[in-house]
């Protein structure tokens, strides 16, 4: 009688007609259930839904409660949904979800019925509701979510979706383990759209579910299984957001700031990219979650295991596993784990050839020990990147890298660091300073990475463990993804900053390596160990997106600033050493002379000559064993050279296609007869502050296709002005008595008529750019609960900022260089003020020059232009 009263009391609320209630009562009182070994002791109706009636019963032996789920006769799809529920429980095989004890079907009063007998999760006895959970330990709270996601993953793997995940449908047992219940809306992978029902708990239903179902019922679209998986994940994310927002103080004290942020980030990533302005974590813009969203419960499960120490990327990616016995020692920072697939990469021509030329070009003419190779640097950058990844995975403040980074991400950044220089060739940086638009080695790097059907491509794309299972395009994306290039994913932008950023692995390696090889002390002052231990990811809002890059915690601010100062010192003392800058200026003139011959060829437009030059260079670089370079080196035919073989051949390739100026410069370099300084200009010494800023823009190598042309015009105009000044000067005009003055003057004028005797050098400001450094401010340790949606507080390093602003101002100089045969004459005959005056005139001419009509580039200077096979030999050929 009590059961009948319960059912009839639910008739109005659940829409049960009196006749339907009577059928259910007759069924429960019949012998059918008794024959299923059930005894209805004190039966209790849990509830009535649209499709089912839920009743608690007790088995005869053992005496345990079970749940009876009876299909309502009035609902035409009730039996279909009951079958789905049974199959989902049976095929998932997860005891936390429940087990089937029996299943009955039949007809009563001409009405079909069905009954599923399954596990009963007793919320009044052993279990508690999700809402009443309190004072749970941090580890148990995380384990609870791990168990919950495991259940959902098991359900999805079995080919079913739940359809109604919410705090109401999760029960917690006395062991603090969750149990997912209420499978009324579960549906199989293949389901007729007409039988698919979308519902759920208000506030936990995916925003698209209702409209998508309406369109599906009208035949406009079809709801896929993957789409329904996303709906489950969305509901789970909403549930986790609720759990984090309703926890008590004790829970948050145990969780700590890092775990609070970690779980908040995970919850927001479960929301299928449909994040509202409030659905964010650690300062990420809601827009970023479209690329960060989870595609499966397995991905979320993997990330929860990371924070529990059950999934370790340093073990998953073998190149990070320092327990491997095979190692290389190429860096002072850490050993290099030598895996078989890394060894295969090092054997590729594109990588191995980096060991055939110097890292620092012709700096060995200034520092004799500067003979280390580009391959050493590539391996060192790779090794340092491995350390970056290891420490970012231990970041104690920002959970972004630990949670979001996958094994694929780690492999991609390791490959990007190793292969970022494969487009390099001898003197590549010097050629780029001459014209970055033509000779940019990064363009060649992209080309080599994307070139198919090569050993390199096969190793990169080949399956693990022999290959890397990596798309070359992903490597290219990382190399190009600047922090504010929002067309790339946020993770790619963060990974880019590991290879190229304010604190990148590339800088650490070349500063420490160059300093050690050259015998300077600047690189040895960097506290690399401390810096690595304090690495973190900085995420800051910008234009509706998030700028992501690697930075440092506040306790790593000083080591980071020592890195910046070491770079400043190395540029001032080494990379911009006045003798090295003279060498670079001579190399640039060789390149410009070569470019001018291409520029002046008939029917060659300024817009197409870059392509022609680049193709010619690549053809020579790709020739077997550098055959084209060797041939050109023999044709140039100079005597024993101070220059290394690879660098000499590279220059000879230009000289063989250029004019007489190029040959003169090459001959001087080969005999180490370098151009000499006759005037040095800097802020406050020849230039006002505003003039200096404009000068940087004029000299930049990335100023467009004609940037190099204007610099040639400047040097030639300066030479013409000084020649005119010398030719027209009267005796003793400058108050200096010169022995045999007329003879010296004639020699000078004759030399200037034959070749370029004046060069102007200014270091490329773009290459010297010092990006600012932001660091994460140390948190208040007394606060147990934090705003997990807000970004971590960051500040700008004043030292980095001042150093960056004054980089070229502090050590950048305009150097006016002269042919070594003219040095003494210029020093005795011309005052420094005179040279500065003529330089300013030449600068005005160069700035206002119409390049397409300039006499230097309209009229081909054919005098002395060497032609292949017509050159007079001047000694032995360059040895290759």
Short key terms for the protein model shown above:
single chain, 880 residues, alpha+beta, Phosphorylase Kinase, domain 1, Transferase(Phosphotransferase), domain 1, Hypothetical protein af1432, five-stranded antiparallel sheet, four-stranded mixed sheet, 38 helices, elongated, disordered C terminus
Global shape: elongated
Q: Unreliable segments (pLDDT under 50, ≥5 consecutive)?
A: 732-739, 858-880
CATH superfamily label of the largest domain = Hypothetical protein af1432
**What portion of residues is helical?**
40-55%
The span between the termini is 105 Å
**Strand order of the biggest β-sheet:** 1-2-3-5-4
Proportion of β residues? 5-15%
| Secondary-structure-derived class | alpha+beta
CATH first level of the largest domain: Mainly Alpha
> Main sheet, how many strands, which sense, barrel?
5 strands, antiparallel
Q: Number of folding domains?
A: 4
CATH architectural designation of the largest domain: Orthogonal Bundle
Topology-level CATH name of the largest domain? Hypothetical protein af1432
Number of extended strands: 20
Secondary structure tally, helices: 38
Average pLDDT, all residues = 84
Radius of gyration: 37 Å
